[in-house]
Amino acid sequence: MALSLTNSLSGMYIREVAAAGSSYGIATNVLVPPSTLLTVIQGLQADGMVVTVIEEKLHPDLDPVTAAIAKIGAHCFPSHNEANAISGQGTIALELENEVAQLLAMKPSPPKRNMPGLHAIISIVGTASALCGICMACERTGTRVFGAETVPDPILDTHGPNLSSIVRGEERYDFDVPMGDLPFSTFTARGLLSAILYAEQSTAIRASEALLQQCSVHVTPRDVAPLAVGLYSEDFHRFVRKNVDRGQVVNIGIIVQADQARLGTQRPGTVEFFPGEDLHDGLESLFLC
């Protein structure tokens, strides 16, 4: 089983995940963007991690959204101005899948059966648009997407639609699809998600509890960090166990954003992102299930 990690921003929090995976003998490959601090890269290498710097290969004649979505055979027209979020996250997801496929292809003694690529991605993102980019990228490859997110908050919502708009079915992303390709031209990201994992309770969540249950949203205690939520969730465990029981090798990718390093509204004094023991316990219960 391999754990491949990528970070769309600074890479500041990736060492804890990589170290936790290594403590259980999980092969870890780290993918980082060019903006990653050199000290972070050197620290990862000092920990024995294989670090690959990802360059975004966007066509100069295309805008970021069109260029990123063109890689999956579609053109996206978001209903708000978060083009960079869609482009960046969707591209990162595709590059992560490509990198995992290349790493597996380089194995000296491939198994008799086909080695699987990336099975699932846990994504910790701040807005609906970023998650939509990942969902659209992974739709073509069949990779499952588990979104770990903080509860919708008025402060965060001012920066664009939060996952609450997806849950309510209010945020739609329209794009053209080539004839004979994907069987839809309009969708909500909710239909592409395996689960939406909330990391905090709120009045809004409690008031909409019935609706959330209909949408199969897993609500978790507020003192659990988003990544731990993804590792602890019944939906994710069920997905992993189903494959493990079949004797399948399961490769999990985790996309971590530095600006999601805190719970809730990211106000000063909130819980730090990786809670040490919680993270290790989560990895143990996931990979040793």
Automatic annotation (TrEMBL):
Organism of provenance: Zasmidium cellare ATCC 36951
InterPro entries, per the entry: TrpB-like_PALP_sf (IPR036052)
The protein in question is named Tryptophan synthase beta chain-like PALP domain-containing protein
Q: Which Gene3D superfamilies match?
A: 3.40.50.1100
